[in-house]
Amino acid sequence: MDVFGVLANPVRRRLLEALRDGPLPAGELAGRFALSRPAVSEHLAVLRQARLVTEEPRGRHRYYRLAAEPLAEVSDWLHPFERYWRERLTALRDLTEGEDL
């Protein structure tokens, strides 16, 4: 599954952000959204298929954990653009610092 396509959805990005600090049960994740639990479950399934999260059953609950390795693909793709923006921001700083405000 295409990581970029998965990350295009804001709900899935927010789910990943919620998991940055550690695993959370599905119910707690669902409670953070104004969506039905089945809708959140569908987003978690997509994240699982993309290998961005792992699922661990603990009793009656399912805990989700961030699996950040696939995000390396995104980082590799973004890296050349970081240089592009850094150069432009440096040029803007140089321009604004050289002007009398």
Spell out the blueprint of helices and strands:
Blueprint lengths: L2 H5 L2 H9 L5 E2 H6 L5 H13 L3 E6 L2 E6 L4 H27 L4
Antiparallel strand pairs: 1-3, 2-3
Pfam families: HTH_20
Protein name: Metalloregulator ArsR/SmtB family transcription factor
Keywords: DNA-binding, Transcription, Transcription regulation
Question: Can you put this structure into words, describing what you see?
Answer:
The protein is α+β, with helices and mostly antiparallel strands. It folds into two domains: 1-68, Orthogonal Bundle (Arc Repressor Mutant, subunit A), CATH 1.10.10.10; 70-101. It is built from five helices and three strands. A three-stranded antiparallel beta sheet has the order 1-3-2. A hairpin with a 2-residue loop joins β2 and β3. Residues 1-89 form the HTH arsR-type domain. This is Metalloregulator ArsR/SmtB family transcription factor. It holds the Pfam family HTH_20. InterPro entries: ArsR-like_HTH, HTH_ArsR_DNA-bd_dom, HTH_MetalResp_TranReg, WH-like_DNA-bd_sf, WH_DNA-bd_sf.
Short description:
Helices cover 59% and strands 14% of the residues. By secondary structure, it is an alpha+beta fold. It is elongated and about 65 Å long.
